[in-house]
Amino acid sequence: MEGLLLAIGFLGIICALLTPWTKTGTLVTLISFYFYFDVVGIENWVPLLLFTLGLLLIVFEILIPGFGFVGILGAALVIGGLYYTIGDIFQTIRDLSMSVVISTAVIIYLVRRGYSLAGINKLVLNTNLQAQNEEKAEEHAVILHPGLVGVAKTPLRPSGKATFGGEDSPTYDVLSTEGLISMDEPIVIEKIQGTKILVRSYKQKGDE
After folding, report:
1. Count of CB atoms within 10 A of residue 7's CB?
2. Which of 64, 63, 99 is nearest to 78 (CA)?
């Protein structure tokens, strides 16, 4: 039971990072981890703080790769937080192993459905692309907002690139909420969540 709750929590993190369901994934993660520590029972807040800090460091390592020691430290803190909570190294390994196996299977499934692992870094824009986009944005004054119509510059599977406001518009990383959208197909911004630009196919009245 405890291992399953822990696994569901990690799945929530994966959904929050790889799919458009950021809020849902975050909510599932918080609820699952709450019930996990509630079922196991904690005598003080230190293990929970270690576990939470460890998760934050792991997510930071995923979003901004290159600081390998940060991810290692985060993993160590997660293991330490679970061990001090459970008090049994074998159960700690069992719960973590179950979570890793299930999470890996889900990641493989999402990748095969088109949710590229590289899409995680959409929360942190590529430096070179960002610089180019900033220059073009200043020149052409493109302001992104829901309802803005654009064109898919690559197939959206569901992630890809698109432009808004004309051919000279900067290229943006977008995420389709409808699955596959073909290249050069008109799209419209459905919503913007932080740095995630969620789009759908745009159908004019005459095409409906």
Report:
1. 22
2. 99
Which of 67, 151, 157 shows the shortest CA–CA distance to 112?
157
Asked if 76 and 60 count as a contact pair (C-beta separation under 8 A), the reply is no
Q: What is the mean pLDDT of residues 173-190?
A: 89
Identify the bridge partners of residue 200 per DSSP, sorted by sequence position. 188
Interior CA angle at 31 toward 30 and 37, to 5°?
90
Residue 128 has pLDDT above 50, yes or no: no
Per-residue burial over 66-75, b = 16 or more CB atoms within 10 Å of its CB, e = otherwise: eeeebbebbb
Helices marked H in 119-189 — which ranges?
127-140
Question: Per-residue b/e over 128-138, b at no fewer than 16 CB within 10 Å?
Answer: eeeeebeebbe
Question: Distance between CA atoms of 190 and 146, rounded to whole angstroms?
Answer: 5
The reported pLDDT for the residue numbered 178 is 85
C-alpha distances (whole Å) from 128 to each of 110, 120, 132, 143, 168 are 27, 17, 6, 20, 17
Give the three-state DSSP class for 177. Answer: coil
- State the number of CA atoms in the 13 A half-sphere of 147 facing the CB: 0
**Model confidence, pTM:** 0.52
